[in-house]
Each structure stands twice: as structure tokens, then as C-alpha cells.
Amino acid sequence: MAHTQNASLTIAEMREFASFTAAEQRYIRRSLDVGLGRCDAFKMWARDAAENAAIRRQYVAYQELKRLREDQPTQGEEDRIDGFIGTLTRVAAFDLAQDRIDGFSAFRFLYERLLGATARPWLPSAFVGAAALPHIAPERRRMLLQSLSEAAATAPGWSDAQPCFFPEYVEAEAA
Predict the structure, then answer these.
(1) How far is CA 103 from the centre of its chain?
(2) How far apart (Å, rounded) are the C-alpha atoms in residues 111 and 31?
(3) DSSP states of 16-70 as a string?
(4) Phi and psi at residue 164, in whole multiples of 5°?
(5) Cα(108)–Cα(113) distance, rounded to whole angstroms?
(6) What pLDDT is attached to residue 170?
(7) What is the pTM assigned to this prediction?
(8) CA–CA separation, 20 vs 39, rounded Å?
(9) What distance in Å separates the CA atoms of residue 172 and residue 99, rounded to the nearest whole number?
(10) Is 38 within 8 Å of 32 (Cβ atoms)?
(11) Per-residue pLDDT tens for 32-84?
């Protein structure tokens, strides 16, 4: 039974990933390589000097991920929220400013994998905070904020199931 549930969850996650734009898919795979240290992201993803510089900035921004994974506040730890949500919002603002993530679903998909299932309750707040920052262009800000559904913003609870599907780059010949 557990195997069937895990397979169903994996298939649902694969379908969700397939629903993202090509740019979102590429950025998520690259971000997972950077954030999880899966490979040399410069070799894998940098097509030109500008992308090389963007990956370098991403490595710097993602230095905070280890601390975020370790310091997630739990129920009753309200005194730890400001540091956590402030740092998470700053990292999220970096990702949203790259203009590769076009909505909350892709953002949530990425951050569930970067931080784990326990980060789910914090993601709507960090997304809204980052999307509302003034360095995001007004039209893009509107698009991002409208992508957060009422259901996601007002969820009474979140699943603690860890993500199963972690998309990776696959060479055309290997596919």
C-alpha cells in the first residue's frame, strides 16, 4: 500500500512539473543542482557569461539554505519567526527577481525540494513578501501575487510528506 501511495505521489509531482513552462523547468533543475549540490552547475547550465554570473550569484544567495533547513521554527517558537521568514523571503526574492518563476506553484515546488516538507507552512508568506518587494516590476508583481490561490494562502494544514520527484537534467541521447 505504501509503495502505491509513493508511486501515486511521484506521478502527481511529475505531472505538476510538466505543467510548468520550459523556463521554469530549467530554472528549477538548475536551482536544485545549486541548492542541493548535485553537480557543477557552471558546467551543466552556463551557456554564456551572463548565465555564469547568475549562477555565481545563486550560489551566494543559496548559502542561507543550510541554516534555513536547520532553523525552521515549530509551533510555539514565535520568537524565531522573524529571522527565519526574513532570510527565507530574501532568498525567495533572489529567485523571483531572476524572472524565471512565474507563479506560486513553481516556487512551492522548488522550495519544497530545497527545504523539505516542513517548510510548506512558511512558503505562502515568503512568496508574498518577496513578490511584493519594490525591485519586482509592477506588472510582474501583479502576476506573481495573483498566482497564489486563496486555498494555498488560507490552508488549514499542510502535508508532511516529503517530495519524491527531484527533476534532473537529462541529455537528449540518454532520454
Answers:
(1) 11
(2) 10
(3) HHHTS-HHHHHHHHHHHHHHHT-S-HHHHH--SHHHHHHHHHHHHHGGGHHHHHH
(4) -105, -35
(5) 9
(6) 75
(7) 0.91
(8) 23
(9) 26
(10) yes
(11) 999 999 999 999 999 999 999 999 999 999 999 999 999 888 777 777 788 89
